[in-house]
Amino acid sequence: MVESGERVGCIPLKGYSAGLGLAAILFLAPCALLAGDTAGHSKKSPNSEKQAVLQDNVKLRELHAAYKKAAPGAVRGVAATASQTKKQEKAQSQKLQELKDLVQARREKLEHLIQEHPQAALEAALSSNEKTEFPVQVQSELETHVDKTGSLEVFIADDFEHNQSEAHFSVVADQKRFDLHFAGQEPNAISGARVRVKGVELGGHIAVPK
To answer: Most buried residue, 49, 93, 115, 172, by most Cβ within 10 Å?
Structure first.
């Protein structure tokens, strides 16, 4: 059972844990057979995928510095002419597009990392403060550190061919559903439990720390 204080990432709130005899007010998750086959997807090590995101982080910082440097302004202490300002604006616009392209490519890598290797994703994520330093035009494509309270959903996928079952967790908060990916042990809780989730979110997926 996951109780307050045992797990920082996902905490059933008081009065809603499975062991408190409130099953009557909790809905049960549906069970279904998932026939998806992931054998065709190449598997990289968590470290190599994390390093790819970390390298993108370095490129982001360098490109962001170049973007700020290209901002229109005085040239060697002398007010820029109209021609110089236009040239500066064009240069900064180009840097912004490069930032957008890099952020999009990085997003795909990090979103996959959250789903497959949440601990590595947590280690590669930008801090909340650093995110706000980037242009607003790209911030929506960057990860967010979240603290959400909502209703837990547990979905059991049965693979009868291989005699395996896998639990999938999500939380409904702020009228949205977020898939949960745990860096540590999955919580012992049932659908309908009221939970608090802390972690790093991107694309509707949350990496939950140990």
So the answer is: 49
